[in-house]
Design a protein that fits this description.
By secondary structure, the chain is mainly α. The chain has one domain (3-256). It contains ten helices and no strands. The N and C termini lie far apart (35 Å). The model has no long low-confidence stretch (mean pLDDT 88). This is Probable membrane transporter protein. It is found in: Cell membrane. Its main location: membrane. It comes from Stagnimonas aquatica.
Length: 258
Amino acid sequence: MGALDTTLAALCGFAFLAGFIDAVVGGGGLVQVPALFVLQPQLAPATLFGTNKFSSVFGTANAAWQYARRVQLPWRVLGLTAATAFVFSVLGARAVSVFNPALLRPLVLILLAVVFVYTLWKKDFGSLHAPRLSPRQQRLAGAAVGAVIGFYDGFFGPGTGSFLIFAFVGLFGFSFLAASAAAKLVNLATNLAALAWFVPHGQVVYRLAAPMAACNIAGSWLGSHLAIRKGSGFVRGLFILIVAALMARMAYDLWRGA
């Protein structure tokens, strides 16, 4: 096996793991993006991010489809949330040229710490699916969540899936399982918004992205099926682990001044 084949095999392994994690609680980028940067250091960062988005969007789409078949969700509200997130993700991506996204790191780290502590402290948080908002309130909250988190995902990105799940549990009263399903649909919209820029600008290496996409789909299939079978307790446990990993990663980046 040549060096290229070995590298591609490693990337496909990381893509499978990323798809699994992302399907359950989001955060697959914690695995797949560093793997691309380490194993393909000769490529420009924009190309690495574009390749990551292309390969991961298929896993996200598969997870969204798996959840949609088995979890009851308010489709009209989520459609509005996803559409709003798509538009604001594009605006967020454009804002990168005006503002430095790295300035958000301390604030995002604080917000992740709040999410982490609150989820640990409230043992029953997200254990039951008990929507608390009226249809009109759900639409308003959905539009607000889509705008804020969509812009954030386009502008900066890390922790988008975690923030979406926390919003659907905390604001809407969803269980962790339903919140993860809802987050997949919104995350799919923001990923497509990113690809709308990466693909036309030639920032995707398809010889890497295509096989990685297949492995990402396989991982997402396993992750979504396990989440549906094991329920909200399983999703909550992995959610706490991923938020902790995100916090550690961002604290490390701040410490070394990245």
